[in-house]
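Page 37, top half.
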Amino acid sequence: MSDIVTFGETMLRLSPPGNERLENASDFEVMAAGAESNVAIAASRLGATATWLSKVPETPLGRRVVGEIRSHGIEADVVWSHRGRQGTYYLEKGGEPRGTNVIYDRENTAVSTAEAREFDIERIQDARVFFTSGITPALSSTLRETTMKMLKAARQGGTTTAFDFNYRRKLWSPDEAHETLTKLFPGIDVLVIAARDARTVLGFEGDPRQLAHRLGSQYDFTTVVVTRGADGVVGWHDSVVHEQNAYETDTVSPIGTGDAFTGAFIARRLHGDDVPTALEYGTATAAIKRTIPGDVALVSKEEVDAVVKDGGQSISR
């Protein structure tokens, strides 16, 4: 039995070295990358036992992904498929004004056909937390239904459900996301959402504290966490708002920062920490992740403890 079970697609990320352009790159760095597996790894690094569920093609690329996930100490409980392909994405890093560019190549992937009946639902119901993100239902109509069924099954088994809104404009429009994701809200206990997504997709207005209050009261979540970039996070729980500032960091790679935060936050809540303490640990883990290349938070609990001890401002109101 795992503390946390996550469900979603993990892709292969291909990146030219340094700030080279994709169109003339001759070499690529390759690594596994996916929101749900990133969360599982971060939670594991903070002391939780974690399992990642997915549907993966029975190909060398699919086996590469699963092998890399398992190398981080995560249990990978996958459905092997002889149909569909392995999703990939290309990351071209660049400073301003060019910026960093992401190109997805995840059409007709094996995971897009995943159905709830293909998985051992008891794995979810035996866990303490089931986690997925808004990226998963964005990938196919099948996954929209699968995500709904998995959230319902978790709730029926008494498992806490956690969900990162994780809107990706390259996958679907704000209207499509609004229609689908709000239908999932009744099955979610803990919601993590960026303030910009609450405004863009849900049409909410106000500062992050107001957004957290409105989300918590309107949709009856147990906990709402609103992320606000360089300004840190806001957490709403028991009608109280807790603010946590971001820690200073020298950013090497911002990719995966939100996943690092969410995994650490969930792990510390599972450990018994209150919301303000879990916000501290999540924010500290996110800060360390920004110093690490790649998508995965290769942190240690000792490192995170040290960052938390050195300081960061927490305010509850």
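Page 37, bottom half:
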Amino acid sequence: MEIPLNKTPGSPEERKELIGDIIKQQEELFAQSIGYIQRLMIQYLIDRGYTSDNIELNRGYEVNVSAKEKFVTSVDILIKLQEKVIYAIKCTPASIESWERFMLAFCRVVEPYQIPFAIVTDGQEGILIDVLTGQVIKTMELPSKDELLNLLPSIKFIPYSEEKLPKERRILYAFDAIKCCPTCNI
């Protein structure tokens, strides 16, 4: 849909509709760019020896915030070996640092154990997060499948503190609300 430029809306309803159209177009471009970054990362993983059995895309997790509140959250790519999720990867076209906290909360909450590693990438640059230590390194390098299999016995799969889990769920919930469709509020 083409949006006419320099058009003065005839009514508040028309203004609302024009703004909604602009936002929808921006959301479509954003989604296309995430898909492109996701494809780049999938190819990178395949080149590193991972197979479709090791890669899971857009998996949704239901998270209970309270007895009355729950939501579904997801991440773009998961890397699994021997039935364990080892890496969670978030693809975003801009501001990779702003997703650091989301990934920490995500990796602490969604599985019965903390997903040990997270990556946030724009396809060109990335940050690697060691979830267990909180250490952040500016890199997109991932071990090959064979290297990761060799490291697997030394990787710890420990649950996050029960006392701190509610806070992490709330943080994840807040990020999920931010990701919510902005056209819903117009």
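Margin note: The helical segments are 12-47, 100-109, 145-151, 165-179.
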